[in-house]
Write a structure and sequence with these properties.
Structural class: alpha/beta
Number of domains: 1
Oligomer: single chain
Strand content: 15-25%
Helix content: 25-40%
CATH architecture: Alpha-Beta Barrel
Strand order of the largest sheet: 1-2-3-6-7-8
Largest sheet: 6 strands, parallel
């Protein structure tokens, strides 16, 4: 059974193509039984960056997901958001949570400061100016805070800091372990995100080493293609499920109304 694809975007984030109804059609075509839209949520101010929906688009986003539900009643379609975790802005996330009947929130760390998004190719020079060790440490500090916040059901692409294959020297296990132990304590899942295979790192997020440690600690998982085009739902799920099984996983989480159950894959 193909696990649900819980990480998909829409054109409202300004860097994706294809309407939700098209994503749903492709999901049915490739044999998915459940999907979830989790577009980049609005920020507390609309000019924060240019790769997410504006606050005024939130109701439109929900209506587009509802349209896809009506068009494909045979497909379970969840309503969610990918929400950036920024320390000090927890109240904004709580406000978003009250806007609509969401099924889950994916908490992601893109920013290690208000001006440095580590996955932004236009800011790669900041990687060159800084220390990979310090950047990775700051990233995992924020990721751990996100896991401890109680605001999210899933943590997205948990080793996103490897995107450009700029890695620190030495063993990163202590960074992984601190985050994963926080996720376990707070009953938060991590996702196997196949978009990493399409980036410079050419590797699923997270790495095998990371995922093996997650399995040992007992952190649950979900799956996501991080689709930004209608042809991408379910992309590379065969590789992702094989990786998960090789690390000892046999179940993934599914969400409805921010409550979870576990299903085999």
């Amino acid at each position: 059974m193909i696990p649900p694809d819980y990480h998909m975007h829409t054109p409202l984030c300004r860097h994706a193509s294809g309407e939700p109804i098209e994503y749903a059609a492709h999901a049915v075509k490739v044999g998915l039984r459940e999907i979830g839209f989790s577009d980049h949520s609005p920020m507390f101010r609309n000019d924060f960056d240019d790769w997410r929906m504006d606050q005024a688009d939130l109701d439109l986003y929900v209506s587009k997901v509802q349209e896809a539900r009506r068009a494909f009643p045979q497909l379970t379609i969840r309503l969610a958001l990918e929400v950036d975790y920024l320390p000090g802005h927890e109240e904004w996330i709580k406000e978003l949570a009250n806007r609509h009947p969401w099924d889950y929130f994916i908490g992601s760390v893109h920013y290690i400061s208000d001006s440095f998004a580590i996955d932004n190719p236009y800011q790669i020079s900041l990687w060159r100016q800084g220390s990979p060790k310090e950047i990775w440490a700051t990233y995992f500090d924020r990721l751990t805070m996100a896991a401890e916040s109680g605001l999210f059901e899933i943590i997205g692409h948990a080793d996103l800091c490897k995107k450009f294959s700029i890695r620190p020297e030495g063993d990163c296990t202590p960074l992984y372990r601190r985050f994963l132990e926080a996720a376990k304590r707070n009953d938060v899942a991590i996702e196997l995100n196949t978009a990493g295979l399409r980036k410079e790192c050419r590797e699923i997020y997270p790495s095998r080493e990371f995922l093996q440690l997650a399995a040992e600690i007992g952190v649950p998982i979900t799956f996501g293609s991080d689709a930004h085009a209608a042809s991408e739902p379910g992309m590379d799920f065969e590789a992702a499920t094989a990786l998960a099984k090789s690390c000892g996983y046999r179940e993934s989480r599914t969400f409805c109304g921010r409550k979870y159950s576990s299903i085999p894959f």
